[in-house]
Amino acid sequence: MNMIHNKLVATTLAAGASVLSFGMLSQPAAAIDLTFVSEGDTVPEGWTNLNWTVEGRAGAKGFADWEFSTKEDDIHTTVEQLQWNWQNDQEVPWLLNWDGNTVSFTLGGQTIAFYQDNPPAKSLNGFYLWTRATTKSGKVDPGTEILLNVNAVNGIAVAPVSSSAIAPLGEGNTTITKNYFASDTSITSLSGIANMSWLEGSPNPNLENARSRVGLKIEGFSTSTSVPEPGTVAGLVAMGMFGVTSVLRRKKA
């Protein structure tokens, strides 16, 4: 009987250790991976639009027009906006936060936001980065570029992902780039760089009222890919510990 009991204790201890080991291995890693999913207008299958967009553009000189805004995506209505004077090839840091109801966007010490009582979904683990550059005489010369990148998720540095568009030759011609990315971790914040540049001798699109001829967008999605929550792993570890403790107590009794 003792031999059987000892084997049971050993087996349960091993199982508990195995669960503990599994829990340790399954803990969220410090690294966060962003994966390129697709390019173009087609939303990836199973993705739910969270009904908000952060939009940036060349705008207009001074306070004549906005350069960044939050929008309710369903009706494309501007909710809040901020002013920004673009400088040639200046790297402009930005921060986006999402808490399940409110998206907020901070740039240059200014913050704009959009609150939804009942968004289509709460989780954010997918997004697109969109850029556009349209050639317009006297406003946007060929070679003018808009770049938008993400270099951190939830405050953790990641391998940067981006979208960029360069105004092509030919009056009225347009370049649009729309890249979809998925995260292996639920997103509470995104941060990165916005950059607008133009060739020497070309007009500053901001000063020439180019508005949306040079622009960018960020839009959030809830994807069909489930992201394990830390509590799930903690539960498995707890179960393993409970099994070990129970057997040891029986042995002591």
Task: Describe the protein.
The protein has helices spanning 2-26, 230-252; strands at residues 34-39, 48-57, 68-72, 77-82, 92-98, 102-107, 110-115, 126-134, 145-153, 156-166, 174-183, 189-197, 214-222. The longest helix has 25 residues, at 2-26. The protein folds into 2 domains: 1-30; 34-222, no CATH class. The protein starts with a helix and ends with a helix. The chain has 2 helices and 13 strands. A hairpin with a 4-residue loop joins β3 (68-72) and β4 (77-82). The chain is globular. 19% of the residues lie in helices and 41% in strands.
Whole-number radius of gyration? 25 Å
String of helices and strands: HEEEEEEEEEEEEEH
The first-to-last residue Cα distance is 15 Å
The count of β-strands is: 13
Total number of helical segments? Answer: 2
Mean pLDDT over the residues: 84
Within the largest sheet, what's the order of strands? 1-11-8-13-2-3-4
Helix content: 10-25%
Counted up, domains total: 2
**SSE-based structural type:** alpha+beta
Biggest β-sheet description: 7 strands, antiparallel
Strand content: 35-45%
Global morphology: globular
Unreliable residue runs: 1-28, 227-253
